[in-house]
């Protein structure tokens, strides 16, 4: 692997991060397992950053991709594309947005970029509200609204971004408040901010559960309370469902549904899991917003026949096998098992999350200070034990991210928890 690592370093950017002191090359997978080039087998609890959503080498998806590739691989949006129309119909119906229109992209970054274009064009404003600790992608526009220093390489942006409290429940100035008081304080902060903003703000963009930020989330109903204020000003709500969509949280199909009291978002973005590894992203918006662009636009690769075929097969599998229900059941067992393990470990501050989207925040024992060194050590120890997990969180990468494929079995959850317990005890 040293040879491939040396070649990687010679031709790819220094800032292109790799996990592990001795990076691994994954060569193949099956179900919830993957193998590296040295023949080591791992239980995969990260799924290519929440992207292998159903299972590795899922036969239904592999078959759909192969059959479509044998017919035609590419045509662009300049031609009618049956798989794209069919997937758009299913996504529009599932979105909860009335009179929905769907635009496909190739990534979550591009989807959020397109959503911001729609919102700012529709509202004729470049002012955006974003959440502190947020992450929305690595394009120039998406970086401009990211509220996480570790993922913000520049302060330059075409947008004026105002950051709102509320995305992190257990840290910050409102952490000691009850859920109701926390929500009221965040709403008051939002009202105060809007009272100081010049002109009409275009939109609020928010992840229902912050992904890169360490699987943090507000109390249920916060964004519904925000929506009342936004509606007073005509401000759009963009729900970034790149990581929370498709039933991963178990309780809901979309993350926004935990905040549904005042209706669905105006715009919803998605990506990652829908393609089970194929490059699919997209935007759903009500027709009034989606159709507000007054210039020509196409997508060369968005809506590719092959990726759309994969998305259709993957979505059908997910719905037919009730993987949302599985995420709720198995994820509930896994998070309780992890909480029981971590209750005895002073290095763990909090175990949080929903469904199969679980974060374990590590601190210096006896303090509230983040412990990125321990997170790195646990990541390494878990790999040595045969388990792949992720990292994230705030100003310091001190949160372990656990997000297996949604078809995870109870036995695999127990196996992964046992490996993680040994890794945590070694930190």
Distance between the termini: 26 Å
Note the beta-strand portion.
15-25%
The count of strands amounts to 15
Cα-atom Rg, whole angstroms?
Answer: 21 Å
Helix/strand-derived category reads alpha/beta
Strand order of the largest sheet: 4-10-9-8-7-5-6
Number of helices: 13
The dominant shape is: globular
Low-confidence stretches: none
Elements, N to C (H/E): HEEEHHHEHEHEHEHEEEHHHEEHEEEH
- Report the major sheet: 7 strands, mixed
User: What is the helical fraction, as a range of percent?
Assistant: 25-40%
Mean pLDDT: 95
Structure write-up:
- This protein has 427 residues and is of the alpha/beta class.
- It contains 13 helices and 15 strands.
- A seven-stranded mixed sheet has the order 4-10-9-8-7-5-6, with helices on both faces. It has a four-stranded mixed sheet with strand order 1-2-3-13. Strands 11-12-15-14 form a four-stranded antiparallel sheet, covered by helices on one side.
- Helix 6 (140-143) links the parallel strand 5 (127-131) and strand 6.
- Helix 4 (82-95) crosses helix 10, helix 11 (323-342) runs parallel beside helix 13 (410-425) and helix 12 crosses helix 13 (410-425).
Brief account:
With 427 residues, the chain is an alpha/beta fold.
